[in-house]
What we know:
Distance between the termini: 19 Å
Strand order of the largest sheet: 1-4-3-2-5
Oligomer: single chain
Shape: globular
Largest sheet: 5 strands, mixed
Amino acid sequence: MSISALGAHGMAGTPAPPAPVLDVVVPVHNEEIDLEPCVRRLHEHLRHDFPYAFRITVADNASTDATPRIAARLAAELPEVSSVRLAAKGRGRALNTAGGAHTATVPRR
């Protein structure tokens, strides 16, 4: 399993972002066509309409297409997005793995 959470956060001199109030886990398997527009639409909605800090975690269930690369790129581009890659398929496994690390007040699955 690998976790990608890239961006300006954690760089020297950069203040730490506020702890998220909402965690959204998006379990995916072979979603190379729909993943990017869906995550970008969700991210845009939360940034403009949700007044609190949030985190979106893309939990990849052993995809065999470009899904993991797309998820990692989204995590690199969007500071509130991270990605988790699991070696074995299973929606429940993805939700439990990604959801277990959350510290938000309102975890959503």
